[in-house]
Amino acid sequence: MDPALCSEFLTFLGSGTRADVKSQALEYVLGVSATPEGRRSLCELPELVRAVLDVTSDPAPSVIQDSYHILVNLTSDPGTHRFLLEIPPLLPALAERLTDPRYLYADSVCIALCNLSREELSCRAVIAALTDPGLNKLLEMICSPQYNAAAALHYLGPLMCNLTQLPEGRSFILDRSR
User: Fold this and answer.
1) 13 three-state secondary structure
2) How far apart are CA 154 and CA 138, in angstroms?
3) Are 75 and 68 in contact (CB under 8 A)?
4) pLDDT digits (tens, 9 = 90+) for 39-53
5) How many whole angstroms separate alpha carbon 90 and alpha carbon 70?
């Protein structure tokens, strides 16, 4: 993706931009994120990926869903994990949103975290972002099918499975006192 085009997209993703304009810009970025080459080119543009993360808090549902689809596409490629881990608010924001019982987009968040936790390095970062209260919350979520009425959380089991590839994840799950 051309850096000049990137800076133009950043103006379209700003907080004062109309939702239809943001949607059009995100639709283009979503198409770019669907290919390995596109994901690699997006990794060269941290400010654009940060802007995509920022619009996950937009008031327009279509904008939020498209931005999460982009994040899911980016996290699906292990080659992007190191880059994504360098975006400061990403993991804490995703961990907080996943455990919010009223968050409408928890399914997309769960998929992104599941994707990120497949590789050991990024799994360590995910488990660190979740910390002990977050891991307890994940267990509570698995045991409460209606934890989030707006989200099915089908990827919660695979996320927990991925976390057990690390000794600290296994010891947490196997601790009989929980």
Assistant:
1) coil
2) 13
3) no
4) 998 988 889 999 999
5) 13
